Amino acid sequence: MRTYSEKEIKYYTEEWAVKRLNKWSYVFKNGLLYQGLPVGVICYFFAILRFHFDQFKLIDFCVNILVYGIGGMLMAYWTFKTVDKNYKRACEQQAVQQL
Asked: In sequence order, what are the residues at sequence separation of 6 or more whose Cβ sits closer than 8 angstroms to the Cβ of residue 37?
C-alpha cells in the first residue's frame, strides 16, 4: 500500500472531499470546458491552417467539437475515479495513523 505524504492527505481530506460531492459537475467542467473544447478548437483550426485554409465548414467544426468534448469528458471521468480511489486510500491511511 502506498504511503501518502501529509500534503497529499491534507489535499484529499480538505479539497477533494468538497470536489467529489459534485461528480458530474467536475466531469463536465474539467472534461468539456477545460479539455475538450479548447483542444477541439485548436486542432480544428490547426488542420485548416495547415492543410486547407479556404474550406471552413461549420458541420466539420461541430463534429470535431462533439468528438473532442466526449473524449474530454471520458478523460475527466477516468481522472475523477482515479483521484477518488486515492482519496479513499488516503482516508484509510489517516484513520490507521490516528489509532
From this structure: 65, 68, 69, 72
